[in-house]
Amino acid sequence: MIYIKTKQKISRMDQFLRIKNLTNNINRNSEVIREDETLLLVLDMQEKLISNIKGNELLIFNIKKLIKTCNLLNVPIAITEQNPLKLGKTLDSILERKEYPKFEKMEFSCVKNNNFVEYINKYNFKNIIVCGIESHICILQTSIELLVEGFNILIPRDAIGSRNEIDNDIAFLRLISSGAIASTTESLICELCKTSSRKEFKDISKILKNSFSN
Fold first, then answer.
1. What's the whole-model pTM score?
2. What domains does the chain contain, in order, with CATH numbers?
3. What pLDDT, on a 0 to 100 scale, did the predictor assign at position 12?
């Protein structure tokens, strides 16, 4: 039981942190991520799913920027497909003729896939950047179960999507309140790169400068 003095003033933020028990998550997530401890996980960017996603062109654009950055910086990338026999394969524009570890699933959470669990344990990842679709189903369930297992989960707000805006918004709020780290595509690209002095920065800079209007 928690006792509070009647005269003590408690801010709304303090109340929020106590109710959501986020203090430990804030301390745990306060470090800048390292590329050699990080996985980019691209969920279910499939032919029959993407057409109904709100803002799908911008979503694809941002995910491709993350993929290009991770390829430049040697950050591992993994792909999942939900029931591919019915929903189709991953978009060619996402893969761009490259081969990535791919995990087919029927369950909404990737953590229910034993091959995926063996993969993330084998490489001892600490941080997992989760992007793709749909925010309120597979991304939500996968991220929450990975958080329970002790992984740092980073969610680029502009690289996740759902068919309905309300589902996307509420899913993002729940993810952050559960301990995931809110971010954006550009912020994560710079966090992985860290310095303009590295040899890859020239190409990273081109990725950053490439705008959706182009």
1. 0.85
2. 35-209 (3.40.50.850)
3. 54
